[in-house]
């Protein structure tokens, strides 16, 4: 028994930690599973509770109670605001919500630091609980035991409400069929608000009570959110028992795991998550049907419905009548419209060295490197239907490969790019099988695990990668064999721009080719593609490996630009930014994505230079504005005269034709490119699948 | 009393329903028959508020409800039994009843309100299935449950969208009887169905819906005496005129 004995304390800690996470994750699961809101600001709600609790509880019972009431009420109110903020996004899909709530989380995080300071607040618990008690011969903090009791009480109360009351029945009915709930006389909007308020209250209460465990500091929102997401993915939606089990499991991994296997500790959480997700075919979220696949491409079919609403049948009919005479002129207009944004972008980028100072030039170069990662995310998310948070992993592989090559004296740029792409492709080939089997939200989480594990490995393998210090001091890249090294920012920029332009052009051509269409077809109607004899898994693998190579090239360029690389260049934040750039850009638009990255880099690094220390706040505001002002992403701005025409009107208009050949009005406002055409069709397919 | 006047509705800018006029007095059954795509469900949805009509009016005992949110229309006294039944898969029969039941908000008037007990008396099969989840019920039981759900708000108007779809003949007969009994209770019933026989067997008035317009109106009694005109009107509508 000595082994057991030695690990008793961490095991109990794990239970306390797990129950804390359970209370938080239950709220997240409730919001996602029944109100359909993927709330990335859930961690911020916890932090609101934690900060207020720490501020108000002064070591007396009254203080703790006051903190509990105020903290819970504040987070509950924030949940109500969140319900109001997400209501206009109904039907826009989960990625739009992710963009909004991620933005709100950044804003709230910044405000909390502004109000309470950047240091973790000290937490005072009532004197009676600030002692230790004896548990099987070990001293153990009384507060934690009390916390276990309170968390169990909260969990039981929540379960009772959900399963035994009329309100709980309404919540479950609303998850199932909100329309019928309305037809029964219950306002679904009220249920939506109620669910988010309850989720907020749970997070707030957890924040107040859990402050001694996960303290009120700048990192708290991210830690809590990340762990809760992991738990929800493992435990599933709507199944509180699943969430409980997963929460206790994660709690144990984080405490008992660290004490039993300290060397493996950094990998344990994400490795075990990846293992569970990969081993359990059709994980919890996938089993929930709709919730999963929607994330991938469902966005588009939903937003298409909005587009349909806006475009009258008259336009569709006029188009059908006019189609035969559209002819060549339409094709030319279409080509120009398709190329124009690229021409503008290339023009802007080409002008950069002569217009901006050296720092800004290298910032734009960094943006290009990140842009390639984001474009690789577009390929996976928008075309292959694999929403990813893991493209920073091949990005890092490419970057470190390049840095190590340079260190060995291999400084020829094209060779670096080629080898970086190759290394990243091999990396993708190895991790691909785990990723491409999953769909929807599960992909997000598996790729998140891949990304986190990769950056952990990089951080741990100090001898090769320099650990968290990163690699630096290697020779500069040479653009050609035998040429001079790229000594200054401007020449490096020109090289980076050239390589990035070639890579983007190659990607663009691929996506416009029939291969790209097969990919889109796979995303939209996978079963149908399978039934038609298409090797879907092979297509996805090709896309994943190609996207990996593209991200690897981005990594090579990153190293050329900043002549330094560290694990922070490939962290979760970068992965999230890449995904959000894609959402801002319009999900299937390569050029929109590049502009999205530009907006993000300008906001975070350039504007923040004017108002130091508030990069996150500005970024948050950018995301929030983008969600409301650019419902179709930047790509939707292309055709101001035909609202939402980037995707064209729907395929199931009375004439049921793909819109690519359709002209509206006098044949001048040609709609869209080939990819969007595919979207029409698969949106239609999805509708058919949904109704059958 | 339900009165529709010039009711026009559609999806995505396309109009499906073109100016439908209908009146369903209390205690009567009005059947709307039509083929697939004629606009039957669109009619029901736009009355129930699941679809916002683009023009026209929906009056409930003289009060305009067109354009209101679905839950407000439901509370104003419109019960819906939707096509495909759409019971809540994860809720038990008991929970359905509890969720749908609204105690009368005073001044309910002459109509005795529907309580879970009264509904279970009418639909005894549900009483035996109290603890079963919606997803675990048979088609007939789900239909009963959908009806119970609609009745528990003590509606003045009941909308039935293809209530006998996919049911065995013995259950179809049972549904006929129920519809008659409910109308006898003073409820105005609007029934839509592709089946002329269902319409003829229980309706007081029959309208034939063709491409979103009412093309023929018949009385139920005349259709029972001689079904030929009704069948003829329907077959004309099938040829797409």
List the helices and strands and how they pair.
The complex is a heterodimer of chains A (692) and B (241).
Chain A: H1 2-6, H2 8-33, H3 42-56, H4 61-86, H5 94-116, E1 132-135, E2 138-141, H6 142-164, H7 166-176, H8 178-183, H9 188-210, H10 220-235, H11 240-260, H12 265-279, H13 284-287, H14 291-310, H15 313-355, H16 358-383, H17 392-407, H18 413-436, H19 441-460, H20 462-465, E3 471-472, H21 489-512, H22 514-524, H23 526-531, H24 536-562, E4 564-565, H25 572-585, H26 590-610, H27 615-629, E5 663-664, E6 669-670, H28 674-691
Antiparallel strand pairs in A: 1-2, 3-4, 5-6
Helix pairs in contact in A: 2-6, 2-9, 2-10, 2-11, 3-4, 3-5, 3-9, 3-10, 4-9, 5-27, 6-7, 6-9, 7-9, 10-11, 11-12, 12-19, 14-28, 15-21, 16-21, 16-24, 16-25, 16-26, 17-18, 17-24, 18-19, 18-24, 21-24, 22-24, 22-28, 25-26, 26-27
Chain B: E1 2-11, E2 14-24, E3 29-33, H1 40-48, E4 55-60, E5 63-64, H2 70-76, E6 78-81, H3 93-100, H4 116-122, H5 124-128, H6 139-151, E7 157-161, H7 169-184, E8 188-193, H8 196-202, E9 205-210, E10 213-219, H9 220-225, H10 228-238
Helix pairs in contact in B: 3-6
Low-confidence stretches of chain B: none
Helix content of chain B: 25-40%
Tell me the structural class of chain A: mainly alpha
How many individual β-strands of chain A? 6
What number of structural domains do the residues of chain A give?
2
How would you characterize the largest beta sheet of chain A?
A: 2 strands, antiparallel
What does this protein structure show overall?
The complex is a heterodimer of chains A (692) and B (241). With 692 residues, chain A is mainly alpha-helical. Chain A has helices at 2-6, 8-33, 42-56, 61-86, 94-116, 142-164, 166-176, 178-183, 188-210, 220-235, 240-260, 265-279, 284-287, 291-310, 313-355, 358-383, 392-407, 413-436, 441-460, 462-465, 489-512, 514-524, 526-531, 536-562, 572-585, 590-610, 615-629, 674-691; strands at 132-135, 138-141, 471-472, 564-565, 663-664, 669-670. Chain A folds into two domains: 2-114 and 134-257, no CATH class; 359-629, ABC transporter involved in vitamin B12 uptake, BtuC (Orthogonal Bundle). Chain A contains 28 helices and six strands. Chain A is globular. Residues 282-326 and 639-692 of chain A have low confidence and may be disordered. Chain B has a domain at 1-70 and 157-163 and 189-241: Rossmann fold (3-Layer(aba) Sandwich). Helices cover 37% and strands 26% of the residues of chain B. Chain B has helices spanning 40-48, 70-76, 93-100, 116-122, 124-128, 139-151, 169-184, 196-202, 220-225, 228-238, and strands at residues 2-11, 14-24, 29-33, 55-60, 63-64, 78-81, 157-161, 188-193, 205-210, 213-219. In chain B, helix 3 runs parallel beside helix 6. The model of chain B has no long low-confidence stretch (mean pLDDT 89). Chain A binds chain B through residues 166, 169-170, 172-173, 175-177, 179-188, 238, 305, 308-314, 316, 650, 653-654, and chain B through 11-15, 48-50, 69-71, 74-75, 80, 82, 86, 88-91, 95, 98-100, 102, 149, 153.
């Amino acid at each position: 028994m000595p082994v057991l004995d030695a690990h008793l304390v961490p095991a109990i800690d794990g239970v306390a930690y797990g129950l804390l996470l359970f209370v938080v994750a239950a709220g997240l699961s409730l919001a996602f599973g029944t109100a359909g809101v993927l709330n990335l600001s859930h961690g911020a709600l916890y932090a609101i509770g934690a900060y207020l609790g720490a501020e108000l509880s002064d070591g007396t019972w009254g203080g703790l109670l006051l903190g509990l009431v105020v903290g819970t009420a504040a987070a509950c109110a924030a949940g109500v605001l969140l319900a109001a903020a997400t209501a206009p996004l109904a039907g826009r899909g989960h990625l739009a919500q992710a963009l909004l709530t991620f933005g709100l989380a950044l804003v709230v995080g910044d405000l909390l630091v502004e109000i309470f300071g950047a240091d973790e607040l000290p937490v005072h618990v009532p004197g009676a609980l600030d002692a230790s008690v004896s548990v099987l011969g070990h001293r153990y903090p009384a507060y934690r035991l009390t916390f276990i009791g309170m968390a169990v009480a909260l969990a039981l109360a929540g379960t009772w409400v959900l399963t035994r009351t009329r309100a709980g029945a309404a919540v479950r009915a609303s998850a199932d069929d909100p329309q019928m709930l309305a037809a029964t006389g219950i306002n679904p909007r009220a249920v939506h608000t109620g669910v988010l308020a309850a989720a907020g209250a749970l997070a707030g209460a957890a924040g107040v009570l859990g402050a001694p465990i996960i303290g009120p500091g700048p990192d708290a929102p991210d830690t809590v959110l990340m762990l809760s997401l992991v738990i929800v993915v493992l435990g599933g939606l709507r199944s509180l028992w699943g969430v409980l089990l997963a929460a206790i499991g994660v709690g144990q991994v984080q405490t008992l795991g660290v004490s039993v296997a300290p060397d493996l500790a950094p990998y344990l959480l994400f490795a075990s998550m990846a293992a569970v997700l990969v081993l359990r075919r059709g994980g919890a979220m996938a089993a929930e049907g709709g919730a999963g696949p929607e994330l991938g491409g469902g966005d588009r079919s939903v937003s298409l419905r909005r587009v349909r609403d806006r475009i009258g049948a008259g336009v569709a009919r006029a188009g059908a009548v006019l189609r035969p005479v559209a002819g060549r002129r339409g094709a030319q207009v279409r080509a120009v419209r398709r190329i124009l944004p690229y021409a503008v972008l290339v023009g802007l980028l080409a002008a950069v060295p002569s217009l901006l100072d050296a720092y800004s030039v290298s910032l734009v170069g960094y943006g290009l490197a990140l842009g390639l990662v984001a474009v690789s995310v577009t390929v996976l998310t928008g075309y292959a239907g694999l929403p990813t948070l893991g493209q920073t992993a091949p990005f890092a592989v490419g970057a470190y490969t390049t840095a190590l090559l340079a260190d060995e004296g291999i400084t020829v740029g094209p060779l670096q790019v080629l080898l970086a792409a190759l290394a990243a492709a091999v990396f993708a080939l190895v991790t691909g099988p785990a990723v491409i089997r999953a769909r929807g939200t599960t992909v997000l989480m598996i790729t998140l695990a891949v990304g986190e594990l990769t950056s952990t490995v990089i951080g741990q393998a100090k001898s090769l990668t320099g650990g968290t210090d990163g690699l630096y001091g290697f020779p500069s890249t040479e653009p050609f064999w035998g040429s001079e090294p790229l000594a200054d920012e401007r020449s490096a920029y020109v090289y980076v721009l050239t390589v990035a332009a070639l890579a983007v052009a190659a990607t663009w051509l691929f996506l416009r080719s029939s291969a790209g269409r097969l990919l889109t077809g796979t995303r939209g109607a996978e079963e149908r593609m399978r039934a038609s004899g298409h090797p879907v898994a092979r297509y996805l693998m090709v896309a994943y490996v190609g996207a990996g190579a593209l991200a690897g090239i981005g990594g090579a360029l990153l190293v050329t630009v900043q002549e330094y690389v560290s694990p922070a260049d490939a962290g979760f934040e970068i992965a999230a930014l890449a995904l959000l750039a894609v959402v801002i850009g319009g999900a299937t638009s390569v050029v929109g994505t590049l502009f999205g990255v530009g907006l993000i880099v300008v906001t975070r690094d350039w504007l923040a230079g004017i108002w130091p220390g508030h990069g996150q706040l500005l970024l948050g505001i950018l995301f929030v504005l983008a969600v409301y002002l650019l419902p179709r992403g930047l790509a939707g701005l292309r055709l101001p005269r035909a609202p939402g025409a980037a995707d064209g009107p729907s395929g199931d208009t009375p004439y049921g034709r793909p819109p690519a050949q359709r002209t509206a009005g006098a044949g001048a406002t040609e709609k869209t490119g080939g990819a969007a055409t595919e979207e029409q069709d698969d949106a239609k397919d999805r509708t058919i699948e949904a109704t059958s | 009393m339900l009165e529709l006047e010039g009711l026009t509705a559609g999806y995505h800018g396309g109009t499906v329903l073109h100016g439908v006029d209908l009146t369903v007095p209390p205690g009567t059954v009005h059947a709307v028959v039509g083929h697939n795509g004629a606009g039957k469900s669109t009619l029901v949805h736009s009355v129930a508020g699941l679809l916002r009509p683009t023009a026209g009016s929906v009056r409930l005992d003289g009060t305009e409800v067109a354009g209101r949110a679905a839950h407000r229309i439901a509370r104003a006294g419109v019960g819906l039994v939707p096509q495909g039944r759409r019971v809540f898969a994860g809720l038990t029969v008991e929970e359905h009843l509890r969720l749908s039941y609204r105690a009368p908000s005073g001044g309910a008037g002459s109509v005795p309100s529907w309580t879970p007990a009264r509904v279970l008396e009418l639909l005894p099969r549900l009483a035996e299935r109290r603890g079963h989840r919606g997803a675990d019920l048979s088609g007939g039981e789900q239909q009963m449950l959908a009806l119970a759900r609609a009745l528990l708000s003590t509606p003045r108007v009941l909308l039935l969208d293809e209530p006998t779809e996919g049911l065995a003949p013995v259950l179809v007969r049972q549904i006929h009887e129920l519809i008659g009994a409910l109308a006898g209770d003073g409820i105005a019933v609007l029934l839509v169905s592709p089946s002329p026989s269902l319409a003829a067997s229980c309706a007081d008035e029959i309208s034939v819906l063709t491409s979103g317009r009412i093309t023929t109106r018949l009385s139920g009694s005349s259709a029972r005496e001689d079904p030929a005109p009704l069948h003829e009107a329907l077959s004309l509508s099938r040829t797409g005129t």
